[in-house]
Amino acid sequence: MNPIQRVGSKTMGEPEVGCRQSLPQGIARSILCRAGRRWPSLAARYRAMRRIAWFLGEIPVSHYRQVRKLTCLLCAFRHTQVGYARLSNVYELAQEAERAGLPGCFVECGVWKGGCAAVMGMIAATAGSRRLIWLFDSFEGMPAATKEDGEAAREITDRFDGSLVPVGSNVASLAEVQHYFFDRLKLNPARVVFRPGWFQNTLPASRQEVGPIALLRLDGDWYESTRCCLEELYDQLVVGGYLIIDDYGHFPGCRKAVNEFFETRGLRPRWVPIDYTGVYAQKVGEDRIGS
Ligand SMILES: C[S@@+](CC[C@H](N)C(=O)[O-])C[C@H]1O[C@@H](n2cnc3c(N)ncnc32)[C@H](O)[C@@H]1O
Questions:
Q1: For the CA atoms of 278, 284, 289, 291, what is the dihedral angle to 10 degrees?
Q2: Contact between residue 105 and residue 133 where contact means Cβ atoms under 8 Å apart
Q3: Rounded Cα gap, residues 37 and 148, in angstroms
Q4: Please, what's the b/e burial string for 170-193 (b: 16 or more CB within 10 A of its CB; e: otherwise)?
């Protein structure tokens, strides 16, 4: 029986009201209770070990000397789908924004469990800057794809009508991300703004409040999600600021949205590849992105 399952009308591990218990009894109850609540299953532990081994294996040997950076990334990698290269890229660009004293906030659209966003938050906190971290996600997972997303989207959904309903993939709850940020990492809640909901609704309603942006990280996978983020937020990226597109290489719909957006602006970004999918560019002028 799971130690926190109810026995009669009581939950094991909770002290019985009005009933005295010895110290060893109390300790035993507390251990059983914690074990029941927190120990993951063997399968989950195996998956976690594989992920740790994979992540450690991705770190270039020369980076092992960067203790501060590795400490930060090790706090984040279990809460993100991205590998070392893209996590390291968020770290470096956020650091660079702080070093250069760029005005504006850090934004991520497509947060999932918050690993990349946490790196932004940890950098801003360590730098002692007052900038805000704005985080946009449904916190219900992906919406339906559209035909623009093509066959690659089938790994996530077989729904292609573009409706804003959760399709049950990439789901992480707002409560779990807030627990990670504020209880585990002890980030300051006054510096992090969560906007749960579909980008198509939350971005138009929040863009003015968001204001200038120093670092804009887009990780919404789909054509419509990416297009909406660019249309609503790109103009707020400050000159000198960075735009990161997580899915440029992996999802053709995302790439199409990015290419179309910049074509209609008459801009030809010079992307810096991060890995097989992620790219970034610096806004070097109102009419130039990438140098
Ligand atoms: C691949 S995950 C993000 C991964 C995350 N950045 C990380 O560090 O691992 C994609 C996220 O985008 C969100 N998303 C995609 N389209 C969205 C939309 N139109 N509105 C709100 N959230 C969306 C999903 O809920 C999901 O959490």
A1: -80
A2: yes
A3: 43
A4: bebebeebbebbeeebebeeebbb
Whether the predicted pLDDT of 131 surpasses 70: yes
Q: Is the full-model pTM beyond 0.90?
A: no
Atom of ligand 1 nearest to the CA of 217: 6
pLDDT of res. 272: 98
Determine the Cα–Cα distance for residues 228 and 232; give it in Å rounded to an integer. Answer: 6
Ligand 1 midpoint to CA 191 (Å): 21
- Spatial contact of 98 and 113, defined as CB atoms under 8 Å apart: no
Give 113 Cα–ligand 1 centroid separation in angstroms: 9
Domains and CATH numbers, the chain: 1-39 (no CATH), 79-289 (3.40.50.150)
Sign of CA dihedral 22, 27, 31, 36: positive
Angle, CA of 175, 179 and 183, to the nearest 5°: 155
> pLDDT value at position 97?
98
